[in-house]
Amino acid sequence: MPWTKVYTDMSDVKDILAGEGLRALSYREALKEAQEQLLRSDDSVFLLGEGVDDPGGIFGSTLGLWNEFGKERVMDIAIAENGMTGVAIGAAMAGMKPVFVHMRMDFLPMCMDQIVNHAAKWNYMTGGKVNVPLVVRSIIGRGWGSAAQHSQALHGLFMHVPGLKIVMPSTPYDAKGLLMEAVNDGNPVMFIEHRWLYDYIGFVPEEAYTVPFGKGIVRRPGSDVTVVALSVMVYEAIKAAKTLEGLGMDIEVIDPRTLKPLDEELIIASVKKTGRLVIADVACKTGGAGAEIACRVAESAHGYLKAPVKRVNFPDTPTPCSPVLEEAYYPNAGTIVQAVKELIG
Amino acid sequence: MPWTKVYTDMSDVKDILAGEGLRALSYREALKEAQEQLLRSDDSVFLLGEGVDDPGGIFGSTLGLWNEFGKERVMDIAIAENGMTGVAIGAAMAGMKPVFVHMRMDFLPMCMDQIVNHAAKWNYMTGGKVNVPLVVRSIIGRGWGSAAQHSQALHGLFMHVPGLKIVMPSTPYDAKGLLMEAVNDGNPVMFIEHRWLYDYIGFVPEEAYTVPFGKGIVRRPGSDVTVVALSVMVYEAIKAAKTLEGLGMDIEVIDPRTLKPLDEELIIASVKKTGRLVIADVACKTGGAGAEIACRVAESAHGYLKAPVKRVNFPDTPTPCSPVLEEAYYPNAGTIVQAVKELIG
Amino acid sequence: MKTNLTDYKGAAKQAGPDVLLGLMRTMLLIRRFEEKIIEVYPVQDMKTPVHLYIGEEAIAAGVCAHLKKEDYLFTTHRSHGHCLAKGSSPEMLYAEFYGRSTGCSKGKGGSMHPVDPENGILGTTAIVGGGIPLAAGTALASKMKKDGKISVTFFGDGASEEGTFHESLNFASLKQLPVIFICENNSYATTSPIWQRQPHDNIAKRASGYNIPGITVDGNSVLEVYEAAGEAVQRARDGRGPTLIECRTYRWKGHVGPDCDHEKGCRPMEDLNKWKERCPVVMFRDFLINNSVITETQYNDMLAEIDREMDRSISAARESAMPEKEELLKDVYHITR
Amino acid sequence: MKTNLTDYKGAAKQAGPDVLLGLMRTMLLIRRFEEKIIEVYPVQDMKTPVHLYIGEEAIAAGVCAHLKKEDYLFTTHRSHGHCLAKGSSPEMLYAEFYGRSTGCSKGKGGSMHPVDPENGILGTTAIVGGGIPLAAGTALASKMKKDGKISVTFFGDGASEEGTFHESLNFASLKQLPVIFICENNSYATTSPIWQRQPHDNIAKRASGYNIPGITVDGNSVLEVYEAAGEAVQRARDGRGPTLIECRTYRWKGHVGPDCDHEKGCRPMEDLNKWKERCPVVMFRDFLINNSVITETQYNDMLAEIDREMDRSISAARESAMPEKEELLKDVYHITR
Ligand SMILES: Cc1ncc(C[n+]2csc(CCOP(=O)(O)OP(=O)(O)O)c2C)c(N)n1
Ligand SMILES: Cc1ncc(C[n+]2csc(CCOP(=O)(O)OP(=O)(O)O)c2C)c(N)n1
Ligand SMILES: [Mg+2]
Ligand SMILES: [Mg+2]
């Protein structure tokens, strides 16, 4: 199905889609279109963040939206993450649907209190009387020596916080559909994008649509090893699968799409079929999302595993600057191939 | 060995220790003695936190210390967690050894940025030139309807942050020894106490001593099931082991003492022996420390598990206030017994 | 507190007997509501940490007298007085403190997290400084929706030290939001005196840095509070932006719980005695009697009527049902469809 | 910038030719150090995000001229000028930007995280507002140890919006710490103009709320900065507490990288042109020549000498070795024993 397909080679994807008479959009454009349609159809929706109205437009994902919707609804703000998150939460309680945009996920620790102690707990503390329909968009940066404070992926932290939902779209189709779902979910949603996905192209319908939370997807069916891949690692996993195919290993690639809720059934079913599990994440290893996924398997698929679980992650170090160290820091298709070989070989 | 023994029945522990000619101290007193000895022996050590100098003295753990060391070194501060953590970090870089005290762990999200983006990354970002000898003491609250914002245990978040160390002492002996180790470790250490342990009594030598990081301990040897228990759950696990003993099940209770570094060898060895693993934590389940421990076992002890891994945690909800809901919220010895039975029964 | 009603120039001047008696009643209601808690607390079946407001009642009363039912209010861990002054039901609050299913949060929040949307209270945070930006947020929503509501946030001297105070005032001033910042300066944060936390004891002084009017009033004089709040409310309703009002007051009881922390050496007993002589309730009662707005008997009737209501409320609350265990796992997430 | 040296009353008056030439040299050093980066950046082998300081050199130069080698300094993502003014080696910085093992952080930090303990730079954070409390912290350490050092923290107008600014000024004033807060107000945070972020364009005004002296100076006039900083440094050394100095200036280049963001429509070109006419380097050069402190030729010699040094430094840096892959896993933790 065109809306589930991932294209790893961007060079000819436009032609392919055109050939199939399908509308091609980049991840960046898909995000922008989602926000544009939401702003147009619902007066309670507004965007806020440092630079949402500037000529860069958050890597293009909010570019020019202020022209149509004004600077009140596409609101540039001061650098005050915790306070402004509180402002967004207050507005959300009063019936607005704010979308708070952070150019780097690294800045979220600044507003951890308002996210963890307020947004996440509000519906429960109020006995369900007041909910917080807040979407927090944040982008995982990478490369060019961005170093320790501008390259972090922190979804692992939010996994541990009841009351939050966590979304990590890997395709343009999901970027639009999940964002439209998030804004109307009625709960605080951590919407996590990857800078490297912005230029990825795929089929994106023009009309508004949503992709449901908690429904993962098999990006590539296979019988030998289950690779649960997050965000940009989905593409590395598909590439790895192609390589491994040549070696006679049949890889199943699963993209959970949302970490919270997590489509446990899909993962468990796949592992019960393949008997092998590799988790490819875009973050540091210890205490990350991969540990939770592996633990769920250890709890619910005991006896099915034919080999140890493997995690493909960044090492447990802050991000280095030097290109040679960056090179050594980031896993890729090759790393996944290596991990799979160790399981089967 | 008296320094590894845990006493679950506080009624007669003083007499027992006295009988053995051993010095008895409460967890509270052990913490205070550690800080007292550190302040006395090292001018660079100082305490800061809201109320460290007040008549409550952080549940007694800093009580009256300001009398001997003055209010400059036992410093009451404004309610400004992030800024004051930055102040402590700056002082630490300049050669001081601050101990920042939080009466509730729930307040740490306020200073997440200074802990995660600064303290944890500083040694690495500076190529090892400048380290941050900061100890952050925080107390996990519980009960009397303290509810969602005053009962959290957030060690699961810090597990995911390279550059931090995490300590969770369960006995008075470890409370003193690990705190003395933490202050001289030279790295940012999250020192996590449990309010319910404050009155627990055990053997504590008068002289200064340290307990090394990364060395877990077998609190009770057993052959059938490995129960890795954190903080106050160590006592619940021992109680559960006694009950299960009567049912012919031999439980090994492991207290990791430090989560970061984690004594993986000890846990793996135990699981290879027993073939069964239960992790008893004092926090919510998803994305917590238990997931990481289970994942390490899935990675390194594949094939040894005779049963699924089980986690004993709080449910994935914020903490409720009502006594009946609190009652249902917190796991105890009975919950561990139940979990073990499900594995063996 | 001035001696004659005629000495007042502002809002208090126009205030008719209804308003004045309303202020009196609100203060008495708060006082007796909490004294009732002190009475039952030793039984140990009200299992929630109570932060008593006794001694500070004039602030909640004086401010809320200007608010409409639909205006937004954010309080703190010390929440009782503000909720009552805004119109929340004592029975619903007591039930919440008892952890009952009939409580405002079905027993899930307790004393630190009251909620009452019908009266503009969208929930309460006990994180110090946490509620300040929330109020700026509801005010932003009101400005965007043009619904004419204003937002008020009460917080302590300690909360003014958090970064959120700075960030919220900056934003509220920039956008000229209809929000009022009421700082209840009782000189202490738990047992930390303000001089161990701030370079001066003048929180209103911070306002000018944000181009916000900042005023200091006697928080124990309900009419002074009423006058200052009146101006601020008018400013907010007129779209002329936020105001910071520092109310000087004093907490009679311990930071948490019904005890007197002075006996534990937390604060000087002289201070307590000094402040008790300036009891907001007594001062205003005497003022009303001297200005013959109320008679001794009328006052006693009011008090008796409130006490009957408190007795009824607390026993009704106590007799209501505990939540079902199943409730534990509910309300973690809002369900839209 | 005044026309005659004699017009100056304060520190600049006492400043002898050495000081004046030193200020000139520091500004030129910063300017040429960064113009060198602009020159090599297109080659794309200096893989680190560079935030250029061009146009703001007078601030770092004027402040650091008063600092001792051992005094502490905290800078930001826009770090180059402050490090150079404090005495850091250009070669070591270039090497760091090239990710070389010879860089100040062995290539682990890059342009946003320079460190140079020998010159009082204990590391750098690129988290906006993150460095302000760190400087209060080193100042606290100095006060406790009585080591006579002072601390200076440079930060932008954007950073003044973070809660840490509020929390740090409150603490520094309370404890009368030897710290100086230098706010470099260039009216922009990335491409957000200050009027979209703050209710007024007057950051120094915030100081009074903390009982801290707050002054605004022309950040493009090195002597005005030098005079204001001189007073603040004296105050800090005398134990008379902190000072907030707002320096009005303008960034010539884009927020990050060597391009001109005006061409991308980020900021009005007129502004750039207006500010370029007030180039801190040119203004001061002319001033020195008019006051015959330096001759045209001497100035050109200084420039040439600096350029030779920059050429040598950057090629030496570029030729030095990359770190070993093993370095990746090192330095996560400090090893005591
Ligand atoms: C962020 C945070 N830090 C610390 C606490 C613990 N705490 C609860 S109330 C309080 C004192 C608050 O003082 P103030 O704001 O003056 O209010 P008051 O209690 O005097 O009314 C503190 C420190 C908290 N709840 N939240
Ligand atoms: C906490 C945080 N939020 C956002 C950013 C992204 N960011 C980097 S620099 C910058 C602008 C800073 O402006 P200012 O403080 O005025 O310094 P300038 O760049 O103008 O020198 C922003 C928003 C960040 N690094 N840290
Ligand atoms: Mg107070
Ligand atoms: Mg700026």
Task: Give a brief rundown of this model.
The complex is a heterotetramer, with two copies of chain A (345 residues) and two copies of chain C (337 residues). By secondary structure, chain A is α/β, with parallel strands linked by helices.
Oligomerization:
heterotetramer
**Treating each run of at least 4 consecutive H or I residues as one helix, how many helices of chain A?**
12
The helix/strand class of chain A is: alpha/beta
Low-confidence stretches of chain A: none
> What would you call the shape of chain C?
globular
Q: Evaluate the radius of gyration of chain C.
A: 19 Å
Q: Kindly report how far apart the N and C termini of chain A lie.
A: 33 Å
| Helix amount of chain A | 25-40%
Please summarize the sheet with the most strands of chain A: 7 strands, mixed
Q: pLDDT average of chain C, as an integer?
A: 97
Largest sheet of chain A, order of strands side by side? 3-2-4-5-7-6-12
What is the end-to-end distance of chain C? 55 Å
The average pLDDT score of chain A comes to 97
Identify low-pLDDT runs of chain C: none
Strand content of chain A: 15-25%
What's the SSE pattern of chain A?
HEHEHEHEHEHEHEEEEHEEHEHEHH
Structural class of chain C: alpha/beta
Description:
The complex is a heterotetramer, with two copies of chain A (345 residues) and two copies of chain C (337 residues). Helix content of chain A is 38%, strand content 18%. Chain A is of the alpha/beta class. In chain A, helix 7 links the parallel strand 6 (165-167) and strand 7. In chain A, helix 8 (233-246) packs across helix 12 (333-344) and helix 9 packs across helix 10. Chain C has 337 residues and is α/β, with parallel strands linked by helices. Helix content of chain C is 41%, strand content 9%. Chain C contains eleven helices and seven strands. The longest helix of chain C is centred in the first third of the chain and has 24 residues, at 17-40. The radius of gyration of chain C is 19 Å and the shape is globular. The mean pLDDT of chain C is 97. Chains in contact: A-B, A-C, A-D, B-C, B-D, C-D. At the A-B interface, helix 5, helix 6 and helix 10 of A face helix 5, helix 6 and helix 10 of B. One magnesium ion (MG) binds at residues 156-158, 186, 188-189 of chain D.
